């Protein structure tokens, strides 16, 4: 049930052009569900799917809206890279 909700959220957002507000809404929705239900999610799905969702969570964590900060940190990504990375990772789920 939690897994399906996360997949619905991802598929809703990655299939359209996103404004900054929509990216923030996407991030907030995903992170709240993922982080609050991690234990239940681990029991609900196989480890491979869990690791893919964890990768998506980490993509969000790598996102940095501030360009100056991104320039000084090779691990920070902008919004375009974030969505591209999430799409690539999501394709491993479906």
Features:
94 residues, mainly alpha, 0% strand
| Content-based structural category | mainly alpha
Apparent shape:
globular
- Mean pLDDT, to the nearest integer, reads 96
> Helical amount among residues, as a percent range?
over 70%
* Low-confidence runs: none
Give the distance, in angstroms, between the N- and C-terminal Cα atoms.
16 Å
The topology string of helices and strands comes to HHHHHH
Strand content: under 5%
Number of strands: 0
Over the alpha carbons, how many angstroms does the gyration radius reach? 13 Å
Explained architecture:
76% of the residues lie in helices and 0% in strands. The chain has 94 residues and is mainly alpha-helical. The longest helix is centred in the first third of the chain and has 17 residues. It starts with a helix and ends with a helix. 14% of the residues are buried. The model has no long low-confidence stretch (mean pLDDT 96).
Summarize the structure.
The chain has six helices and no strands. It has helices at 2-14, 20-36, 38-44, 47-62, 67-72, 79-90.
């Amino acid at each position: 049930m939690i897994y399906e909700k996360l997949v619905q959220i991802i598929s809703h957002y990655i299939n359209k052009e996103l404004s900054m507000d929509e990216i923030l809404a996407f991030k907030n929705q995903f992170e709240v569900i993922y982080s609050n239900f991690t234990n239940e999610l681990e029991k609900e799905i196989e480890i491979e799917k869990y690791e893919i969702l964890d990768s998506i969570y980490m993509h969000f964590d790598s996102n940095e809206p501030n360009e100056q900060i991104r320039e000084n940190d090779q691990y920070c990504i902008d919004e375009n890279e974030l969505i591209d990375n999430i799409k690539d990772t999501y394709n491993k789920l479906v």
